Amino acid sequence: AQAISAQGSWQDESHQQPPHAMFLCSGGCNDVGRSAMEEVVHAEPAGRRECRHCFTFPNGTEYTGQWLKGMPDGEGYQVFPDGGKYRGEFRAGKAEGRGTFEYSNGDVYTGSWVNDYAHGEGTCSRHDGSMYKGQWHRGMQDGSGTLSHNKDGSFPLQQQWLYQGDFLDDAFHGKGTLSWADGRCYEGQWSNGKMHGEGLYVFPDGRRYEGQFEND
């Protein structure tokens, strides 16, 4: 019981919030693009068309890049009203393929996109000092990955730590190892961000507890 009750910081660490969907050109990229194409591009109607200058949508989003059938398609660069920036591949008006999104809060995601979501393999560096590298599913950390936090501080949540293992819906879930710079380490089963199931916990002084954990 002592080994379990001595810790409690991993629950928040396991729910580091990543960037989710971008929702590019929300509410009118398709229609607006179709009506404005003749003013901004020159190319064959059936082919991919290159934008000659920056085009601004009614919602304030600016886009420069390739078009197809009235929508961003191919390589492009998009700047949002809140300061967010995406550079990469588009398909039918949405982020699809490889790309980098710089969020207005300082977070940066580079990797695979599907239907405007971070999806597949990608890396996200966050302004709070944390970094996730691994698999994503519809904008959420999901699958195998590594999450680290590299800023020191006086509180447990601010200390350096590293998690390597499985994720589900942004949380530690499955099998994984969480280690801290002060020598603490837990290796075992996780469920929804909590130690749950068979596991091994090691204290900074070398003491060990091995056994069952339940929602700790």
Automatic annotation (TrEMBL):
One of its GO terms (cellular component) is cytosol. It comes from the Eukaryota. The keyword Chloroplast does not apply. Keywords: Repeat. The keyword Mitochondrion does not apply. This is MORN repeat-containing protein 5. It comes from Pyrodinium bahamense. The lineage of its organism: Eukaryota, Sar, Alveolata, Dinophyceae, Gonyaulacales.
